What we know:
By secondary structure, the chain is of the alpha+beta class. It has one domain: CATH 1.10.630.10. 48% of the residues lie in helices and 11% in strands. It is built from 17 helices and twelve strands. It has helices at residues 36-47, 67-76, 87-90, 93-96, 105-115, 121-140, 150-166, 175-192, 196-204, 212-235, 242-248, 260-291, 293-306, 321-333, 365-368, 388-393, 412-427; strands at 50-56, 59-64, 81-82, 147-149, 340-344, 348-350, 353-355, 359-363, 430-434, 442-444, 448-450, 455-460.
Amino acid sequence: MSTVVVNHTPKKNPKHPPGPTPPWPFGIIRQFQGQPLKKMEELAAQYGDAVRFRALLHFYGYFFFHPEHNKHILQDNNKNYTKLPHPSLLLLTPVVGHGLLTSDGDFWRRQRRLAQPAFHRQRIADFATTMTDATTTMVARWRDGQRLDLAEAMMHLTLEIAGKTLFSRDLTGEANTVGEAFTVVNEETASLSGKIFAYERLRLFPWWHSSKVIRQNTAVLDTVVNNIIKERRHTGQQKDDLLGMLMEARDEETGQGMNDEQLRDEVMTIMLAGHETTAIALSWTFYLLSQHPQIRAKMEQELAEVLPGHAPTVADIPNLTYTTMIIQESMRLYPPAYAIARFGHKPDVVGDYDVPANAVITLSPYLTHRHPDFWEDPLKFDPERFTPERVAERPRYAYLPFGGGPRQCIGSNFAMTEAILLLATIAQRFRADLQPGHQVELSPLITLRPKGGLPMILRAR
């Protein structure tokens, strides 16, 4: 499917994507509350790769699921599509402020440029020992037959690693505090996503936090983040980590550095995004391996051959090809960032359809990753999909667990390196099997968590 931008002038008879026509004034936004993925799947099954729907009054939303749609919006005409004022991201701004996740334009480009060196491949390689050491310490506490919530364990582990590598700070003491506060924020934000008036209030009054619950738990997170910044400023130490780079960075034109509010927004964004998504990816990976013992056995064989009796290093990753493919396939079936939000400022043509100015647009890696035109037997867990030959056969934007275009996740290489090293380190010593009788369900909040955690039984190898 070709994608051509014809012009930016609204048409008298635009060709809209198909979609439901609920009676005015009430749209279908409430139908997304609690089950956004289920509703998106229903709409995609009924209407196809592009859907237009009335949310409320004259407010319309657009879903696009085809790889060419993704490419056009995220890459080809990306300047027309910003993060704000997309409603779902407006709801996040009270929590993460205007960090890399939500900022746009020149300010975003400046912040991205300042943070980019911290995620250079060589720097990530230097973090590898910290990653494996933290994992080895955690695994040393595990026992054969032990029952634990693996999702919670992964959250604590990745938060510890994010603290040590990016901020030179041990956050293990704050793990429960951060985890509980962000879970509440996650759930409350998802709840508000079905309330159109919550968007309008934030759009008109950005200083008005979206709910008392979010305000209270954001204050808890702020205490942790502000202490990180305050301690660094108090000691005056110059450390070669992300926080040090951001504190020492100076604007090319004004010579000014970031104030504490800007630092807070970036640290909050990276602390939360930098551990949440990797922890979720690993949780789903262990769940899938527990359901596919033959694939797990093949991975264990690779680990035995590539890592005969030693912990994995960055130098081993190119040889851990099957282990890497397992993580890629896990993120295909369960992408932690299951939806991508954009706001279209000018009229455009996406695929065969006209999109007006001020369009609220949502892309869905979850649905694109399960599109039957690009993934044979899409619900099957098959790591072999990610051999170089099969990857080359697919459109680039058929797979986008880290987004795409200029706004692709800045930490994608960090996350993949961490996921591979942690999976390999744990799988060398333990298998994790799902607790009998537990039904795994999706919890599509800001990220795609397993509902109620992931209770598993550890088996020493």
